[in-house]
Specification:
This protein is an alpha+beta fold and 647 residues long. It contains 19 helices and 23 strands. Helix 8 packs across helix 9 and helix 15 packs parallel to helix 17. Belongs to the peptidase M1 family.
């Protein structure tokens, strides 16, 4: 065990540092975290304490520095009761990365020693990681609701932490709550068998009971994977399989369970490609619509936006993606956010391999790669093709890493791995990925370590033509990782299905406001073809080829303004706003108040802001309380506003 710890310390120092943590994690590292939270969901407040088991890994230390964000810190003390002085400062005050909590220790501690430390603090509505919702904002409207979202560097708003993916720790938690405020509570951890215990309370608190749950996560995880959800929610098994479960508000359980009946098969498809699922059970939480992203891969408790639930199964690629994170991201993790593609590029690669195994539609995989490439290019244009944010290694020194969040690590990372696979060969590449997972299980690494492993593996396996393959791998490696803009090598994902979708959009342009003869083809399109069609309409709108009379004819034929599939609807609204259509402002505003998923609302706000800034601001102010803090801040930036009305 000692040798393993020493080995991990040596490796960590050899990897890239994380510029987005204020903690002194290279000198001291937390091994275990325990949280005790008393939830007051009506008042949007959590009374909290956290306990740590730090190990000194540097030569010596006399203080511990942790990341925090708008936490109320009351006291810091050793677990033997000795109070420790602390100070709070802001190394990058303008970056919105939070503050640094500096705890002065009682003496000098040396390499190998452990420090048992506790902190009393509280969380309130200013938190960037906790979203407090009133009961009126929920579907059942019977209880308030609470959920967390920590990725990238937002877990410092949940507890004082070494908020970096470089540090992995086990954690336990005791959550105390009122039975009138939450039917149940879940975390990204296993539940102990002794649950729902009713606690003694004063006689004047006769209208509710205090309950508690205890959680245990025995696998070391980075802080951004700590997660909680509480409210009027229930957990049920999905209709197929014994490992997969669903959590949602009770009025949605039946419909969601039916749509997710193939969750076990999704898991088996991933296992078929990459190997066994090692986390035990898999639970998917369908969050309220204000959840700011499509999905979040918290181990044992994946979160997803309800926009993935279309009634047709067309949005379930998100489910496969988040499942795939159980291997890439949760088991092997990027060492810092500059290496995010180590999480996301690998996960997209595995997601599409599993989707091919499950659905057996090669054209759909190619089309999704094309759609992803389009989204990636739009993000690159937003940053600038010369910006390092359009590379696979963004420099976020002095900045919030959320500022670099985009499709680039997902899709450019996917294309890089597809390119490497084309050099190595499909079978050898698959075997390499399985060996890679075994080698770095529960570790955090950087791209250089992956490169070293890939070359070492191919050499040790004695693959054919090793020298040539090594040369081709290294030839463009640095360009793939460090060069901004489009990938250095073009990958061809073309398919007849792509041509069919593009011809369909051209038919509408040619018809010039009339119904084209092939207008009914749309209903037989793959879901990905429909997305390609709408993406092409947006491109035509940007180049002034799409006119309002064509927009009206398309909507008359396809009823896209009334579409229930949000993947299609946001693309439609973005396109028509880019044309200059103001006649559907009411529907656009309603849409922006019904979903908080950034992928869908940010592009529509950008298009709306360019068309009518005042209406865009008015729409945002109408729905501001609905949005998660992460989404709210991004929309504020899109609209060029200085701040939010909500404090």
């Amino acid at each position: 065990m000692i040798l393993l710890v020493i080995s991990s310390i040596i490796c960590l120092h050899a990897y890239e540092i994380d510029v987005n943590t204020f903690s002194n994690y290279l000198d001291v590292q937390n091994r275990h975290l325990h949280l005790e939270w008393l939830l007051n969901m009506d008042k949007k407040y959590i009374n909290a304490s956290s306990s740590y088991s730090f190990q000194v890994v540097g030569r010596s230390i006399n203080k511990i520095s942790l990341d925090i964000y708008k936490l109320n810190i009351y006291s810091t003390y050793l677990q033997n009761g000795i109070l420790l002085p602390h100070t709070i400062d802001s190394p990058y005050a303008d970056s919105d990365q939070g503050q640094r909590l500096n705890i002065q220790l009682d003496r000098t501690y040396y390499r190998g020693e452990y420090i048992e430390l506790s902190i009393k603090y509280s969380i309130d509505s200013r938190s960037r990681s906790i979203s407090f919702m009133t009961k009126e904002q929920t579907s059942t409207k019977t209880m308030p609701y609470l959920f967390s979202q920590c990725e990238d560097a937002n877990c410092r708003a949940l507890a004082p932490l070494q908020d970096t993916p470089a540090i992995k720790q086990t954690y336990t938690a005791t959550i105390i709550y009122k039975d009138t405020e939450a039917q149940d509570v879940f975390m990204s951890a296993d539940e102990s068998k002794d649950q729902f215990k009713i606690l003694n309370k004063p006689l004047d608190e006769a209208n509710f009971n205090w309950k508690y749950k205890y959680f245990i996560q025995n696998v070391p995880i980075p802080s951004y994977l700590i997660a909680i959800v509480a409210g009027n929610i229930q957990k049920v098994p999905t209709s197929a399989g014994i490992r997969t479960f669903l959590v949602s508000e009770p009025d949605k359980i039946a419909a969601y369970t039916e749509e997710l009946k193939e969750m076990e098969q999704f898991l088996q498809a991933i296992e078929q490609y990459i190997g066994p699922y090692t986390w035990g059970t898999y639970t998917l939480v369908i969050q309220p619509p204000s959840f700011p992203i499509g999905g979040m891969e918290n181990p044992l408790l994946t979160f997803a936006n309800p926009s993935i639930m279309t009634g047709t199964g067309s949005g379930l690629a998100v489910t496969i993606h988040e499942m795939a994170h159980s291997w890439f991201g949760n088991t092997i993790t990027c060492v810092n956010w500059a290496n995010m593609w180590i999480n996301e590029g690998f996960t997209v690669f595995l997601e599409r391999k599993a989707s091919l195994i499950h659905y057996k539609i090669p054209d759909d995989i190619k089309l999704n790669a094309i759609i992803g490439n389009t989204s990636m290019y739009q993000d690159m244009l937003g940053y600038g093709l010369d910006s390092n944010f359009s590379s696979l290694h963004p420099d976020t020194t002095g900045l919030n890493p959320d500022d670099s969040f985009s499709e680039i690590p997902y899709e450019k990372g996917y294309q890089f791995l597809t390119y490497l696979e084309s050099i190595v060969g499909e079978v050898d590449f698959q075997n390499m990925l399985r060996a890679y997972l075994a080698q770095y299980k529960y570790q955090s690494i950087d791209q250089k370590e992956f490169q070293n492993f890939l070359l070492r593996y191919l050499y040790e396996q004695g693959v054919d033509d090793y020298s040539t393959k090594r040369y081709k791998i290294l030839e463009n490696w640095n360009k793939w990782v460090y060069s901004p803009g489009l990938p250095p090598v073009f990958l061809d994902f073309s398919t007849n299905k792509l041509t069919q979708a593009l011809d369909y959009s051209n038919a509408y342009i040619t018809a010039d406001g009339k119904q084209p003869p092939n207008w009914q083809d749309y209903k037989d399109f793959l879901h990905s073809q429909k997305q390609v069609f709408l993406e092409d309409l947006f491109k035509k709108a940007e180049s002034k080829l799409l006119k309002l009379n064509v927009v009206n004819q398309i909507d008359k034929d396809l009823k896209l303004t009334e579409e229930n599939d949000y993947e299609l609807k946001f693309r439609w609204f973005r396109a028509i706003l880019t044309v200059g259509d103001k006649s559907r402002f009411t529907q656009v505003a309603d849409f922006l108040g019904s979903v908080g998923r950034g992928k869908m609302v940010y592009p529509v706000y950008r298009a709306l802001n360019q068309l009518d800034h005042d209406f865009a601001v008015q729409t945002f102010r109408s729905h501001e309380a609905f949005y998660h803090p992460i989404a709210r801040n991004n929309i504020i930036n899109i609209l060029g506003l200085k701040d939010s009305f909500i404090q």
